[in-house]
Design brief:
heterodimer; A: about 280 residues; N-terminal domain of TfIIb; 2 domains; three-stranded antiparallel β-sheet; 11 helices; 11 strands; about 35% helix; extended; B: about 260 residues; mainly beta; Proliferating Cell Nuclear Antigen; nine-stranded antiparallel β-sheet; 4 helices; globular
Chain lengths: ~280, ~260
């Protein structure tokens, strides 16, 4: 029986509609959901094979946690609009109907985005539009509109409240503002193609902040994703583990002699031969 | 289900004697085509690759590819219980938990049955490309073993120079130097003693003698050994047991910093 644990929006009458869309930064397929006209993304917390779930009377081997949260459709739309306008040096690109914009052979479920409330308005925020028939609008991405919208991120209600939680009263106000701005940028860089992030980062100056951090040799943001990195470090220094590893290595006499051989100037064979992917036929 | 019957059981005994010197644990990868083993030594500068083709067994049956993870030392201990003339049958069911070994004496009056616990070995496989070696030297395996043994007295490494006129092994150490040259020759009475050199370019490479000495533990498997050399490429030392089996060693050359 396939089961998993997830944190998801409060259940409503309508079912979650599962769709596959290209991730805005990597372009690789990623899982999204649509419910009640809103778009949700899925985040997976890896269990690294070290945890399992108890679900009722059963044990679920895979201890991953899935978190389904709302995402602004603009993030998903942006790379698609960039691709479809086919901008060249001497042309600003094509105007297209929204149905055509979302028609993609690789991601057939893209068209499902039409179920999102106000999807047309979202497009209007970042596109030039033309009306060519009554009730028929064509769209083309406008870089300036995007820049403008992205620069206004300081005003995003959700981001502001999030950042306030990390705020530190002990610092002077302009440093606090710079910290806030940087945190927002870091957050957004997971959703915006690097081209845009570079463009916006250029507008700000974090030098003062960097100097301060260097002088105090601290960082102001504790990154939770370091958790596993730290844990694995701790493991390496686990003396018990090391001992058992040493015990396990029973070498024959000649192997022990080999260990003493001076291998200076001898490259590892892995530099000559390429590693093959592990045989999947393994049980 | 995996089953392989080897009428010449001593072959397996000798292979284990040779390989266990270099590696502790290894996977016997059983497939339709035969049994393969690939493993590196602890410092990852040498690699041993063994292939026993299916046609060398009678009968041979392998329904499904499976790796048999073996502690080579333990397997070697069990194989020592087999007589040199014994017929050895290897058996494993699909669970792959144990390897069954049956030793039958040639006149069928004694049967030994042993079981070896298997283990999961997470092993990386290296893809070894086909290389056009600049020099290929065939010589008597006993001669190769002797040269390695003799030069170990002098130094820990040996420089191998191959030219049309011959192959020269040179060592220089604290108290002196030593060199042995073999010239290509044909011996009609004793084919195994012949030395032959195929050369597209003369090569000169330096290797650790300790490793080469361990490679030469395969001498009982084959009368002839073939060395494949090219500049800046691992040396290949091959012992062929007929057409159905081989054992190959790869060793990284020593590269001097001052060159």
């Amino acid at each position: 029986m396939s089961q998993f644990i997830c944190i998801k929006p409060t259940t409503s009458a309508t079912e979650l509609l599962s769709i596959k869309l290209p991730h805005p930064v990597t372009g690789l397929p990623a899982r999204y959901f649509i419910q009640d006209g809103k778009l949700y993304e899925v985040q997976k917390l890896e269990s690294q094979g070290e945890r399992s779930w108890f679900i009722n009377e059963t044990v679920q081997k895979d201890g991953c946690l899935y978190i389904i949260t709302k995402i602004d459709p603009l993030f998903v739309l942006l790379p698609i609009l960039v691709n479809r306008r086919k901008k060249t040096s001497n042309s600003q690109g094509f105007f297209l109907l929204i149905e055509d914009l979302l028609d993609n052979n690789e991601y057939p479920s893209l068209i499902k985005l039409l179920n999102i409330v106000n999807i047309v308005e979202y497009c209007e925020w970042i596109c030039d539009t033309k009306e060519y028939d009554t009730n028929k609008k064509v769209f083309r991405l406008n870089d300036e509109k995007v820049s403008y919208l992205v620069q206004e991120f300081d005003e995003f209600e959700s981001l502001r409240s999030l950042i306030k939680r990390f705020d530190n009263d002990s610092l002077c106000s302009d440093i606090r503002q710079a910290l806030r701005t940087r945190a927002v940028l870091e957050l957004m860089s997971e959703y915006l193609p690097s081209y845009w992030i570079k463009k916006i980062t250029g507008l700000y100056n974090f030098e003062k902040l960097a100097e301060l951090e260097k002088a105090n040799d601290i960082t102001f943001v504790d990154n939770p994703s370091d958790f596993y990195a730290r844990r694995s470090l701790e493991k390496e220094f686990d003396p018990e583990k090391q001992q058992s590893a040493a015990k396990k290595q029973k070498l024959t006499r000649s192997q022990a002699a080999l260990a003493k051989v001076n291998t200076k100037g001898m490259k590892k064979l892995t530099t000559f031969f390429t590693k093959l992917p592990n045989d999947t036929s393994k049980k | 289900m995996f089953e392989a019957r080897l009428s010449q059981g001593s072959l397996l005994k000798k292979i284990l004697e040779a390989v266990k010197e270099l590696v502790t644990d290894a996977n016997f990868d059983c497939s339709e085509t035969g049994i393969a083993l690939q493993a590196m030594d602890n410092s990852h500068v040498a690699l041993v690759s063994v292939l026993l083709r299916a046609q060398g067994f009678d009968p041979y049956r392998c329904d499904r590819n499976m790796p048999l993870g073996v502690n080579l030392n333990s397997l070697n201990k069990i194989l020592k219980c087999a007589g040199n003339e014994d017929i050895i049958t290897l058996k494993a069911d699909d669970s792959g938990d144990t390897l069954g070994l049956i030793f039958e004496s040639p006149n069928n009056d004694r049967i030994g049955e042993y079981e070896l616990k298997l283990m999961d070995i997470d092993q990386e496989h290296l893809g070894i490309p086909d290389t056009d070696y600049e020099a290929i030297v065939r010589m008597a395996s006993s001669e190769f073993q002797r040269i390695m043994r003799d030069l170990t007295v002098i130094s820990e490494s040996v420089t191998i120079d191959v030219e049309k006129e011959g192959i020269k092994f040179t060592s220089s150490g604290e108290f002196g130097t030593g060199a042995v040259t073999l010239k290509p020759h044909v011996d009609i009475d004793n084919e195994e003693a012949a030395t032959s050199i195929e050369l597209s370019q003369s090569v000169s490479l330096t290797f650790s003698l300790k490793y080469l000495t361990l490679f030469s533990k395969s001498t009982p498997l084959s009368d002839q050994v073939t060395l494949f050399l090219s500049d800046n490429v691992p040396l290949l030392v091959e012992y062929k047991m007929g057409d159905s089996a081989y054992i190959r060693y790869y060793l990284a050359p020593k590269i001097n910093d001052d060159q």
